[in-house]
Specification:
The structure is a homodimer. By secondary structure, chain A is an alpha+beta fold. Chain A contains eleven helices and five strands; from the N terminus they run E-H-E-H-E-H-E-E-H-H-H-H-H-H-H-H. Chain A starts with 8 loop residues before the first strand and ends in a 54-residue tail after the last helix.
Chain lengths: 364, 364
C-alpha cells in the first residue's frame, strides 16, 4: 500500500501519516516525496476497512464485474492482490487497473492509459475514488484499492484484509481448480508466521530504508536479517512456509523477496547479504517466481523506477541503478525435490489474461 | 586522493575542481559535502606534482625521516601509498599520519590525534601544509599528501606518482627483501593495464556514484562492469595482473576492490553484481587481503563512515549501512594453486609497526 508520500498506510501502527501526506494529497506540499528519510517512518492503519463479503454484510456483496482492483506493480502490498487474483482465477470477476509507478503530488495516476484516464472508472487519479467515498479525506492515497465501479467510490484500501477476502469470501467466483490459499485448519499457523514476517520483513525493509537515525536503522536492519535467517532455516527442508502447498503466507513473503536485491539491498540499505547469497531463500524465491501467477505479475521496471525515482529524500539524484542482473531469476531452483504440492488438490492458473501481460522491459 | 568536497584531484581530467571545493576550503560554502551528485563529476589534476627523488632534482631528495605521508584509510588513492610503504618496508624512513575519515569544511583533519593535532607536523588540518606551500591555493585538499617535516610544506599530492617513486626512487631505504613493485621489463604492460583500470574501475566507481544524469551513470556503470569482466578473465588463470608477482597494478586494483561490496555496490550504485559473486575477482581480492601489507592496512570502519557520512548529496540521512558481512574476507582463496611468487625474489613484510595497527572496529 504505497501512498504518495510515505507508503505509510498499514496496520502495525495506529495514527495518521507522518510525512505530510495530507498536505501533499491536497497539493499544498509539493516536496512530499522528499520527505522520505527526513521524518520518522510509521505505517498507519488503513482508513477504509469495509469488506466485500459473500453475504454483503458491510453493504458490499461479492459480485462479478462490480469492482475494480487498483494497483501499482511497484508496490509489494498491492502485488499480493495481483498474485491472489491470478492464482484464484478472478480476472473476469474483478478487473484490474495498473497505475503509473511514479506518483506525482496527487499520488497514484492512470498515466499508462489512453488520455491518462482509467478506461473503466473514467478517472485520472486514484484520489478521485477516495474523494467520492469521503469528501476531504485527510489521509494518504494508497494501493491496493478496490473501487465500486457503478458509484466510483472506494470500498477498501485494507491491504491486509483484501487478499484474505479474495481467498475466502470470493469462493463462488474462483476458477475451477483454484487453490485454497487460507485453509481453515492452518490459519493459526499462517497468521503467526505472517505476523513476524510482516513486522520484520515486509515492513522491516521500509523501517530500515526510511530510518532517520542510525540506531533506528540498525534496529530494523538487524531484526530483518534475524527474521530472514529464521525463515531460511524453516524453508531449508520444506517447500512452502506452512503445510505443503502455497498459502497466503508465501504470497506475502514473496512480494518482499522479489524486490530484495533489486531495491531493498541497496536503496534501503538492507545489505548484510543479497537474497542471491542465501541458497535457501534464493531457491525458494525462484521457485515461486517460476510458478504461474507469481513471476508473471512482476514488473521489475516499475519496481525500480518507483523506488529510486519517488524516494528523492533518500536518493536525491533520482538515478535508477542498473543492477542486479535479473536473468538468474529463471535458473533452475531444484525445490521440487523437497516435494510439496504447489496448488494442493487444485491446478496452476492459465496464461496471463490478454492485456495484462507485463511489458518486456519489466521482465528478466 | 579524497578532497573535502569531491575527491576530484586526479590525472584523467584537466581542470579545476567543479563542486565548490575552493569555496568550501575557504569556509564560504558550508554545504560542500552536499554537492556530491549535484554537479558533474570530474577528477582534476594533482596541483602539486613535485617529485621526491634519489637525485633530488626537484629540490626534494629522498631522505630518511624528512617526510611525512598523510593519508586517510578511507581513501583508495591514499591507501595505495600505505600498502606500498608497508611492502617496501619504508615505515621507519617515511612516517605516517592518519586523518579522521570524516572531513569538515576545512577538509582532512587530525582529530584522531591528541589535542586534534598531528604530533609531528603540529597542525590541526592538512590544509595548513597546503597553505605553507602556496598561500591562498584555490584547489582542493587531497590525500595522499607528502609533507616536508622541517618546513611543514606540502611537497606533493600527486597520487599517481607517489607510489611509483616509493617503488623506484626510494630504493636505498627499502627493507632487505623488498619486492620490485614496478619492474623495468614489465613497465609498459603494467602501465597499460593500470590505465584501463584507472579509467573504468578506480575512477569509474566515482563516475557512477556521483553521476548527475541517468545517461552518465549508465555509461560509467556499464564501462566499469565491462572492465571488471575483462580483468576477471585475465585473472582466471594467473595469480597477479602482470608477471607472476605482485606489482603496482595489483595494489591499484586492490584498493578499489576491497571497497567494492562495502561502499561502491550500494552507495555508488555499482550493483550489477557484488564482488563476492565473481569467483575469480573475489578470490583474487581475498588472496591480496590475506597477504601481509594489504589487508592489515584496511580500516573498513573508516571506509564506511567516510563514504556514507561525507557524501550527503547522495546519502542525505548520513546513515551508515550495516552490511556486508566482512568475515568472508578471511576465508581460504586457494589462489596459491595458480602458482606465482607474491614477492618475487623478495620476502613478505614483517608485522605492522607499533601504533599503526588498524583498530578492531575496522577489521573483519
Amino acid at each position: 500500500m504505497s501512498n504518495p508520500v510515505t507508503e505509510q498506510t498499514g496496520t502495525d501502527t495506529a495514527g495518521t501519516d507522518t510525512a505530510g501526506t495530507a498536505a501533499a494529497a491536497a497539493g499544498a506540499e509539493k516536496t512530499g516525496n522528499e520527505a522520505y528519510g527526513k521524518k520518522p517512518f510509521k505505517r498507519s492503519k488503513s482508513h477504509f476497512a469495509d469488506r466485500i463479503t459473500a453475504d454483503g454484510r458491510d453493504g458490499w456483496p461479492v459480485e462479478a464485474g462490480r469492482y475494480r482492483l487498483v494497483v501499482s506493480r511497484a508496490c509489494p502490498w498491492a502485488s499480493r492482490a495481483v498474485i491472489s487474483r491470478r492464482l484464484l482465477g478472478l480476472e473476469d470477476a474483478l478487473s484490474l487497473a495498473v497505475t503509473d509507478p511514479i506518483q506525482d503530488d496527487r499520488s497514484w495516476r492512470f498515466t499508462l492509459d489512453p488520455d491518462d484516464r482509467d478506461p473503466v472508472l473514467g478517472i485520472r487519479f486514484l484520489s478521485e475514488a477516495y474523494d467520492a467515498r469521503e469528501t476531504g479525506y485527510p489521509g494518504g492515497v494508497s494501493v491496493p484499492a478496490v473501487v465500486d465501479v457503478p458509484s466510483g467510490r472506494l470500498v477498501t484500501n485494507d491491504f491486509q484484509q483484501i487478499t484474505l477476502d479474495l481467498a475466502t469470501e470470493w469462493r463462488a467466483l474462483h476458477r475451477s481448480g483454484a487453490p485454497d490459499l487460507y485453509p481453515e485448519p492452518l490459519r493459526d499457523e499462517i497468521d503467526e508466521v505472517m505476523d513476524g514476517i510482516y513486522r520484520d520483513v515486509n515492513n522491516g525493509v521500509y523501517r530500515s530504508g526510511f530510518a532517520t537515525t542510525q540506531a533506528g536503522y540498525e534496529e530494523a536492519c538487524l531484526a530483518l536479517f534475524r527474521r530472514l535467517e529464521e525463515v531460511s532455516q524453516r524453508l531449508a527442508n520444506r517447500r512452502y512456509l506452512v503445510g505443503d502447498t502455497i498459502t497466503e503466507a508465501d504470497i506475502r513473503l514473496f512480494t518482499t523477496l522479489v524486490r530484495f536485491d533489486v531495491v531493498y539491498h541497496g536503496h534501503f540499505k538492507c545489505n548484510r547479504w543479497k537474497l542471491a547469497e542465501d541458497p535457501v531463500l534464493w531457491a525458494y524465491s525462484r521457485d515461486l517466481f517460476q510458478t504461474p501467477g507469481f513471476g508473471d505479475t512482476v514488473d521489475f521496471d516499475h519496481v525500480k523506477r518507483h523506488y529510486y525515482q519517488v524516494h528523492t529524500g533518500i536518493n536525491p539524484t533520482g538515478i535508477v541503478a542498473l543492477g542486479p542482473d535479473l536473468s538468474a531469476w529463471l535458473t533452475p531452483h531444484h525445490r521440487e525435490q523437497l516435494g510439496g504440492r504447489p496448488f494442493g488438490d487444485g491446478t496452476p492458473p492459465g496464461p496471463v489474461a490478454a492485456g495484462e501481460e507485463v511489458p518486456a522491459a519489466g521482465r528478466p
